[in-house]
Amino acid sequence: MPVNLAPPRPEDLLPVKGVTLGVAEAGVRKAHRRDLLVIRLAEGTSVAGVFTQNRYCAAPVILCKEHLALAKPVRALLVNTGNANAGTGEDGLARARRTCVELAAAIGCDSVQILPFSTGVIMEPLPADRIVAALPRALADCREDNWGTAAAAIMTTDTVPKACSRRLSLGGKPVIVTGIAKGAGMIHPNMATMLGFIATDAALSQEALRQVLALATARSFNRITVDGDTSTNDSFMLIATGAAGTQTISGEGHPDFAALAQAVTEVAIWLAQAIIRDGEGATKFITVHVEGGKNEQECSKVAYAIAHSPLVKTAFFASDPNLGRLLCAIGYAGIPDLDVDGVRLHLGDVLVARDGGIDPAYREEDGKRVMQQSEITVRVELGRGSAQTTVWTCDLSHDYVSINADYRS
Amino acid sequence: MPVNLAPPRPEDLLPVKGVTLGVAEAGVRKAHRRDLLVIRLAEGTSVAGVFTQNRYCAAPVILCKEHLALAKPVRALLVNTGNANAGTGEDGLARARRTCVELAAAIGCDSVQILPFSTGVIMEPLPADRIVAALPRALADCREDNWGTAAAAIMTTDTVPKACSRRLSLGGKPVIVTGIAKGAGMIHPNMATMLGFIATDAALSQEALRQVLALATARSFNRITVDGDTSTNDSFMLIATGAAGTQTISGEGHPDFAALAQAVTEVAIWLAQAIIRDGEGATKFITVHVEGGKNEQECSKVAYAIAHSPLVKTAFFASDPNLGRLLCAIGYAGIPDLDVDGVRLHLGDVLVARDGGIDPAYREEDGKRVMQQSEITVRVELGRGSAQTTVWTCDLSHDYVSINADYRS
User: Fold this and answer.
1) Does the model's pTM come out above 0.90?
2) Are the CB atoms for A8 and A164 separated by under 8 Å?
3) Residues A31, A33, A37, CA angle at the centre, nearest 5°?
4) Is the Cβ pair A324, B122 closer than 8 Å?
5) Which of B311, B317, B339 to mutate to test the interface with A (most CBs of A within 10 A)?
6) Which helix H or strand E contains B86, and what residues bound it?
7) Which of the following is catalytic: A193, A217, A265, A389?
8) Annotated catalytic, A193?
9) Residue A356, by phi and psi: left (phi above 0), alpha (psi -120 to 50) or beta?
10) What is the ipTM metric for this complex?
11) pLDDT of B27 higher than 50
12) What residue ranges define each of the domains in chain A, with the CATH number in brackets?
């Protein structure tokens, strides 16, 4: 059961002019499952993306980067689940390329104007034949109000489709931002494939699009991942069709920039948090906020030491205020000159530790009360400076082991 | 059930002349449990130790370092389970110091000649009164042939006492090396308390003792831990009584140095591996060997990325050759210029991947066959140089979650 996360209501998902979506059952891994998604983009659409840093990055990631570098207008995105096409070498590249060639032929563009995405099992050959065979059905299904179906089609071990919309006004004209994402919902989402697609009908220059993407990523998907610790397939794409007829946002200095960046960021944060809420086996949504650091990097070290600790995560699962495990994680986070006498640890509204140890006024029942909540905030004051950061994580439960031990069965 | 690890047979544990051990029930956390150990050392004994790097290091660790720095002969070690006396600030130091003062008074030495050790729950006050009250019973129990009882008394979530001995000959005289250890048996033992005590009746200078300690640690306990990622209480002590009447080993150049270092290292490796074999919920013992790196550091990065990955560990638990997860971990290990085309991955005797992807000759049934074994070796050839390293880990099972969710109950 995801933590406080319901499937999107169809009426909450707003179409984005210039974007149509279609799904089909290709039988990539299992029959009778919508596992193929085509996202078609109107002429004049801009696209920017960020990708995994993994050295074993997947064939579709390599092709996406190649195609984007050519700076030809992107006309369609092609997404399959069931197979990650990663760790597949030259053969994997050829298979991914073939799906682009066939989709390009079907819609009348060059294959480098297609961006491919795959998610699923690593190191197995992509069944390109079955994907190609299903393309006509996915194209026939393409329509603007298909975001909910698209969100469901890209799920792997997700239990709930993840999609949301924001509406805003730029220069008096209505603008829509709608996004979908899937996270295999790992405890460390960075280790699983995260795919995110956000589209708007606002108009942005390529430069402005990249700036919005960077801002939104830093505050959302990168708060649930670690640099250099990403899956083979992670991809997050930002799409701007310009079909709303608004002024083109040329860059950070443009008057409409802040409002659009804010809306995109809100959608990205909602999607990133949804991935954690649907984390495999998750029963708790945990916010780790670290402040008072000398710089953001050391705040991140502490936040991720807490967020990654299996001992901390099992204590959350058990609703057990075994809070020494939090101190332990702070202690080994890798700040060599950390003075623990200056550190304060809060669990929700409860001060737990200060002056190098437990706060004399701390009472076990207060810790227990917070631990029983489904949304918990851990706040660490390092007492060394003014930098801060926030990361989101979930607990570690029996179901995590079951899901990952049985994933391929 | 630990992986291929039986309790030591009493006849296999050899007394070390000059070392006596006694245990008692102090009721530190629970009644009717031997939770207190005193190790008395004869006059003339040398002691050296290595300790956790955790910034929240425990009160006994602070005292141990303080006492060793004074270079007075150590006359006894005092170990309790049930309470780690960590995250306890000034009050924790005072309580630990009091136990040293009382033991010193009882055996007639100065309190700085006592080394204290604690393991158990973090951030709770040490019941020093109950420990002090039990000291006479532990002292009355002291004898040379008590190593097995001592190994049992320092267990926390361990299921099997860990102890072993080696016999060697130096200059024609018999010499004994005997050690005990406890690991709360975490998946990452570095996050739990690891205590290790190895004693020999050989004679070593303080300098030689430190050299042997460093060599043995690097090849054993540090192969199951990560720098800067250690618990609040980790401690490993090496004791040399000199009671065997052998020549004093003055340093690395001494003719007896290599043989003694070898024997100590064998005991340390056995104990370190035993901690993994008894890992919480472990069903498999996994050796990760990485070779062909430019330096040992990058080999370690890859080895620990594999050894720490919950996805890899749950696949081992499931005996599922979902080996793409291994490639993924290699890819995010943090070698930015790793050329995956030069990497080869072996599972046991099976070549799994080369040239950036799966080996065309790899067959799933071969992977399955290896995954079903209880002892598995993962070997990665990086193809970049001649450095190598080995680490040991275990799988991630349901029982890990149960044990850690229920630990304080």
Assistant:
1) no
2) yes
3) 120
4) yes
5) B311
6) none
7) A193
8) yes
9) left
10) 0.78
11) yes
12) 10-277 (3.60.70.12), 285-405 (3.10.20.340)
